[in-house]
């Protein structure tokens, strides 16, 4: 049994290594030439894999650039599912996003070195469309995690939290693209993330209190 598990572990590591190599070559090519100017066949050749191998690891060409979205979803779901007692789901998301920003995690892309990344996204409607789809997937995953942990109105809570963060994030991205000092933008982004999600959390708590008070008064 141990041998089988080790074999499975090696197989998964190899798959992860191939996936990372494909994404690294693709990202470098997209950043250099633009997303629409690079074909999947060119990526496969550069990464020394067959074209079908690319699609075995990535459902869409756009996912070659957005390769960290599964990680983002997993982190957010874990933050909600494993949050401490007394911490709301929205606060748990806020804490996670702030921690990623403070750590300079690659998922926190409000830094000057990511300007070209966002330029590539801004140049491609296909990437913008896929980004919206992936954000909707994350929202649904968050809502499911909230439902499993007894958050009232999980769909609404998830939608409001995602919309609030999306607004803050896109504002920061536009400022980065406009050439503003990325240190200032990153600090503002962090503060606005905390503020926006606190507003969502407070508003939802107020609504729940009003609903409880109205039900008690009947």
TrEMBL record:
Pfam family, one: TetR_N
Keyword field: DNA-binding, Transcription, Transcription regulation
Gene3D superfamilies: Homeodomain-like, Tetracycline Repressor, domain 2
Membrane-spanning ranges: none
Chain ranges of the HTH tetR-type domain: 16-76
GO molecular function, one term: transcription cis-regulatory region binding
Annotated DNA-binding residue span(s): 39-58
PANTHER family: HTH-TYPE TRANSCRIPTIONAL REGULATOR BETI, HTH-TYPE TRANSCRIPTIONAL REGULATOR RUTR
Entry protein name: TetR/AcrR family transcriptional regulator
Source organism: Kribbella soli
